[in-house]
Recover the amino acids of this structure.
């Protein structure tokens, strides 16, 4: 059984300011591009049975700069749809909802085509991704390049936890995490590492 590597894209303007970013397709900052390039040594010594990216430019560019060739965009690797909270910081949300917490409260609907997602809906997408990569993991390592909240949910689901337990896994920009197995069961082997 191969390892599942989770790569969070490099820094964007909104990741610096803490604005929720799902469908807004921001480019990497200069620092974000450097973060992505710095991942290459961690990934270059591996052969991947499968490499997938989010369809958003910040993830695709991170994969390119990290030296991943042949990575295929997968719509299910898209970030959590933040609905009406797109572009809004947690601090701003808490001015009117002081106890708001993404992992339990979800988000209000946004503009047409962006209804927002609950933790369970993001978890269902993560389960679909895990189902698709299962055969490839039997052949070797798999790498996914995507977004913080989505990858946190995916990690929780891989470990057999409910989607909301993704809250337990902080994930910084430009990092690699590795889920492996021990005695046939998924485990966290490395988390939130920078080269």
């Amino acid at each position: 059984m191969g390892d599942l590597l989770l790569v969070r894209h490099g820094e964007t303007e909104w990741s610096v300011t803490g604005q929720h970013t799902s469908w807004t397709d921001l480019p990497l900052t200069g620092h974000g591009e450097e973060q992505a390039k710095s991942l290459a040594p961690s990934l270059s010594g591996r052969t991947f049975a499968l490499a997938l990216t989010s369809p958003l430019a910040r993830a695709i560019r991170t994969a390119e700069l990290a030296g991943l060739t042949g990575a295929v965009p997968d719509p299910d690797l898209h970030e959590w749809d933040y609905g009406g909270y797109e572009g809004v910081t947690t601090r701003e949300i808490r001015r009117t909802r002081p106890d708001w917490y993404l992992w339990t409260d979800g988000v209000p609907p946004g503009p047409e085509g962006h209804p927002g997602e609950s933790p369970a809906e993001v978890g269902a997408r993560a389960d679909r991704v895990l189902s698709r990569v299962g055969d490839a993991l039997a052949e070797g390592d798999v790498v996914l390049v995507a977004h913080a909240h989505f990858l946190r949910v995916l990690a929780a689901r891989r470990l057999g936890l409910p989607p909301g337990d993704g809250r337990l896994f902080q994930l910084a920009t430009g990092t690699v995490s590795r889920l492996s197995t021990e005695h046939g069961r998924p485990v966290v082997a490395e988390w939130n590492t920078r080269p």
In short: Strands lie at 4-8, 48-53, 72-73, 141-146, 176-182, 185-193. Residues 94 and 108 are 14 Å apart (CA to CA).
